[in-house]
Amino acid sequence: MDLNLDAPHSMGTTIIGVTYNGGVVLGADSRTSTGMYVANRASDKITQLTDNVYVCRSGSAADSQVVSDYVRYFLHQHTIQLGQPATVKVSANLIRMLAYNNKNMLQTGLIVGGWDKYEGGKIYGIPLGGTVVEQPFASGGSGSSYLYGFFDQAWKENMTKEEAEQLVVKAVSLAIARDGASGGVVRTVIINSEGVTRNFYPGDKLQLWHEELEPQNSLLDILNAAGPEPMAM
Amino acid sequence: MTFTIPIDNGDAVKNAEADSQRTLYPYVTGTSIVAIKYKDGVLMASDMGGSYGSTLRYKNIERMKAIGKHSLLGASGEISDFQEILRYLDELVLNDNMWDDGNSLGPKEVHNYLTRVMYNRRNKFNPLWNTLVLGGVKNGETYLGMVSMIGVSFEDNHVATGFGNHLARPILRDEWHADLSFEDGVKLLEKCMRVLLYRDRSAINKLQIAKITEEGVTVSQPYSLKTFWEFKAFHNPTAGAEGSW
């Protein structure tokens, strides 16, 4: 099995954006892979565009970084000219402009989420090709395949901030369990009228799923703790 | 000695394509549109699905939009290209309004504009990956036409895109007639949409029906159709021939 260390850096990824009663919660895993090697096990895929708008990045790490860099630059100028914070819709449309006009060269799916005083919390999904879709919740990246059914069942309208964040953490964690290209920690960003909160959930803070075991320091701890014959059939 | 950046086979293909700007394949696609002329104008039906390959990824996409005062545009194919076409048409309608001369673009003109755009993009090997249906009423005249991604353009009393070509048009050829009432028109479209729901993998059961008359455009709320599964033969199809289907 060759590691192919020259393969382009890609964020296999699971990214999620969810609206709730008052704002949005964005979530993502933290794995960046180069072929089969995990180049960065603690990446931050939720990137700031403005004080009130963030974007979740998936697909090619390079493409998503350069798109978000350009949009951050454009939005900075736009905010100065406008004299007030940019809206989430404008941010999404700038991303769309780059994604659509360079559709042949880019390979990145993005989720734009934020809060502005006109529309409140909004999530815009921008998949490959440059379509913009405003959604109450969105998922993307390779890990999202495992979440369509989960969200169909678990998403409800008008959740509280706590419910929304728990849903996002649960979903990313489930995707990490099944998608080899997703892993590491779960990062969340909550955006509402009051501001932005970043949270960090390492693996040991998450609940265990099917066939997952409680992590131990060593087998020796198990052997010493258990009674006689821990290794017998 | 020149230094060449190693490119593997996949990138060589991608680089060649990146140099010549061309849309190669669609990503998020809409399936069939079905439309008919009726007594007061045009009725058009579409589902609200946006497929991503074989995944039914988006279930709330409006694929029919009003254009100006007199036209209704429905699109199947790549949704991002449809969104771009809507931007072009926005500019067209804006400039039309700015003349402030009492005149406004009718469906014939919009259809002609779209035909030119689609055909010219096809000639540059960079198509807008859509099949468009344009219906409208102006000055009492009802108009219904379609344009494909290669610029094939025509008018007819009833049109359908994608799978609708194969499944809906035979039904329409048999059952369409001039001066259909609104109710009969809706029932006819629903008959077509139900067949598409049974037989088109990318169809979803959430549709809208839009109507355009001299008064203007109305797009219905999203709704679902009942489907029928209680044929006797469906209950135990392989009894007596185990392993068959």
Automatic annotation (TrEMBL), chain A:
Superkingdom of source: Eukaryota
Keywords from the named record: Cytoplasm, Hydrolase, Nucleus, Protease, Proteasome, Threonine protease, Zymogen
GO biological process entries: proteolysis
Subcellular location: Cytoplasm; Nucleus
Keyword Protease: yes
InterPro entries assigned to the protein according to its UniProt record, in alphabetical order: Ntn_hydrolases_N (IPR029055), Pept_T1A_subB (IPR000243), Proteasome_bsu_CS (IPR016050), Proteasome_sua/b (IPR001353), Proteasome_suB-type (IPR023333)
PROSITE patterns: PROTEASOME_BETA_1 (PS00854), PROTEASOME_BETA_2 (PS51476)
Stretches that traverse the bilayer: none
Primary localisation category: cytoplasm
UniProt GO cellular component terms: cytoplasm; nucleus; proteasome core complex, beta-subunit complex
Active site: T13 (nucleophile)
GO molecular function: threonine-type endopeptidase activity
Record's catalysed reaction(s): Cleavage of peptide bonds with very broad specificity
Subunit structure, as described in the record: Component of the 20S core complex of the 26S proteasome. The 26S proteasome is composed of a core protease (CP), known as the 20S proteasome, capped at one or both ends by the 19S regulatory particle (RP/PA700). The 20S proteasome core is composed of 28 subunits that are arranged in four stacked rings, resulting in a barrel-shaped structure. The two end rings are each formed by seven alpha subunits, and the two central rings are each formed by seven beta subunits. The catalytic chamber with the active sites is on the inside of the barrel.
Name of the protein in its database record: Proteasome subunit beta
Species in which this protein is naturally found: Eruca vesicaria subsp. sativa (Garden rocket)
From TrEMBL, chain B:
Compartments it resides in: Cytoplasm; Nucleus
Record-linked InterPro entries: Ntn_hydrolases_N, Proteasome_alpha, Proteasome_beta4, Proteasome_bsu_CS, Proteasome_sua/b, Proteasome_suB-type
Domain of life: Eukaryota
Location, primary (coarse class): cytoplasm
One GO CC annotation: cytoplasm
Quaternary context: Component of the 20S core complex of the 26S proteasome. The 26S proteasome is composed of a core protease (CP), known as the 20S proteasome, capped at one or both ends by the 19S regulatory particle (RP/PA700). The 20S proteasome core is composed of 28 subunits that are arranged in four stacked rings, resulting in a barrel-shaped structure. The two end rings are each formed by seven alpha subunits, and the two central rings are each formed by seven beta subunits. The catalytic chamber with the active sites is on the inside of the barrel.
Family statement: Belongs to the peptidase T1B family.
PANTHER family: PROTEASOME SUBUNIT ALPHA/BETA
Protein name: Proteasome subunit beta
